[in-house]
Design brief:
single chain; alpha+beta; 3-stranded antiparallel beta sheet; 27% strand; globular; Immunity protein 43; Imm43
Length: 146
């Protein structure tokens, strides 16, 4: 999943160790006349070459759409080498995982429009923010006809 970041936000996260990623400069232009609207945007895509999620030690459950709901997340030790990374294999595919050090920097810099969440509270926040019911979206077994 890709993310669009401001130059200011990018300057802050560049102080930290990011997992393998692609970074491109974006220029927003007007469709009407081609004038530049915003030249301070950046495209960030985490390649996920390294698999950080330890599925064996995590508690994951498929929802009715086949997505994995993360009841408990566990990461491989390689994730400790990075302050910022992403995973693709659960409902949290669009989320950026950050270290406590990064969260403290965001707080210190008064970064807005980002919601740091503790790892053990992620699923509850996801369900509240995206109106995803844990019980109602569990994959149902096939009904056997008599």
């Amino acid at each position: 999943m890709a993310h669009i970041l401001s130059d200011r936000f990018l300057d802050i996260i560049n102080e930290f160790k990011l997992s393998d990623h692609v970074l491109k400069k974006l220029i927003a232009t007007s469709i009407k006349d081609g004038k530049t609207i915003n030249s301070s945007l950046n495209y960030l895509f985490f390649t996920d070459k390294e698999l950080f999620l330890n599925e064996k030690n995590s508690i994951l459950e498929k929802d009715e759409y086949g997505s994995l709901m993360p009841h408990k997340l566990s990461f491989h030790n390689e994730s400790l080498n990075y302050d910022i990374f992403s995973i693709r294999t659960t409902l949290l595919a669009g989320f950026i995982f950050i270290s406590e050090k990064v969260a403290n920097k965001f707080s210190k810099e008064n970064i807005k429009r980002i919601k740091p969440i503790k790892l053990d509270e992620v699923l509850n926040h996801y369900c509240a923010d995206f109106r995803h019911g844990i019980k109602t979206n569990i994959k149902k077994g096939k009904i056997k006809l008599p």
